[in-house]
Design a protein that fits this description.
Layout (H helix, E strand, L loop, with lengths): L12 H11 L7 H19 L8 E7 L6 E3 L4 E11 L8 E4 L1 E2 L2 H5 L12 E5 L6 E5 L8 E9 L19 H14 L8 H18 L17
Parallel strand pairs: 5-6
Antiparallel strand pairs: 1-8, 2-7, 3-4, 3-8, 6-7
Length: about 230
């Protein structure tokens, strides 16, 4: 039996909105319906950022470090940093070397007795605010080496945008879950769809559990005890 031979199925924003309305037993009839649904979709994206680490949202950034400066802005789309290391002599194939940095809390940084100590940074904390997040290094970089901070960060999911012909900034495997997530938001604010809310929420939770458990690192995990505090 012949098959299509393709694996390119996806939904654009307009398709996602229509599917979500149909799950609610309704039709998207007016421009306001479209605007309201797209606003709800953007809220779903923000909700998913708070659900945990989504592997497709990981990206890598670099910062050229200046001697005597310990605070640097991250990429504007960076929500959090999951890993960071300091690279010495970047681009020099005979000298380049990477060294892992340890993430510490703001409190641990505050308790450092000499924050102006100048040497190769070994620790960092993330200073979060309502604008662009920052990375704060300890020790303060000295002027003896050329350092580059390389960091893996969680980037914000792109907005739904203006045109319905654009695709959502999620992998295709997340589309079933996304349509139910949007349907849940629409049903919650639509009196005619209230009776469908429990069913949609239950299916949304099932789909999120399935896809989030599948979207994870497959490598083995090795735990190494920190013996530095033992006498």
């Amino acid at each position: 039996m012949a098959t299509s031979g393709t694996t390119a199925f996806t939904l654009d924003i307009g398709d996602i909105l229509e599917e979500a309305y149909e799950l609610c037993g309704m039709e998207m009839r007016t421009g306001y319906d479209y605007k309201s649904a797209k606003r709800a979709l953007n809220l779903v994206f923000l909700e998913w950022q708070n659900k945990g680490l989504n592997l497709w949202t990981l990206a890598q950034g670099t910062i050229s470090v200046t001697a005597g400066t310990n605070t640097y802005s991250l990429e504007s789309s960076a929500i959090d940093v999951v890993d960071a290391f300091i690279r010495t002599d970047a681009g020099d194939t005979t000298k380049q070397m990477d060294q892992r940095m340890t993430r510490i809390s703001r409190t641990e940084y505050n308790h450092q007795s000499n924050k102006l100590t100048k040497s190769k940074p070994t620790q960092f904390f993330i200073d979060k605010n309502t604008g662009t997040n920052s990375i704060v290094l300890w020790a303060t970089p000295d002027d003896a080496k050329t350092y580059t901070v390389v960091y893996d960060y969680v980037k914000r999911i792109e907005d739904a945008g203006i045109t319905g012909a654009s695709n959502a900034d999620v992998p295709a495997r997340y589309l079933p879950c996304l349509t139910y997530a949007l349907a849940f938001n629409i049903a919650c604010k639509s009196p005619s769809a209230q009776q469908r809310v429990p069913m949609i929420k239950m299916r949304y939770d099932e789909l999120w559990k399935d896809v989030s458990e599948a979207d994870r690192e497959r490598s083995n995990v090795k735990f190494v005890p920190d013996l530095s505090y033992m006498n």
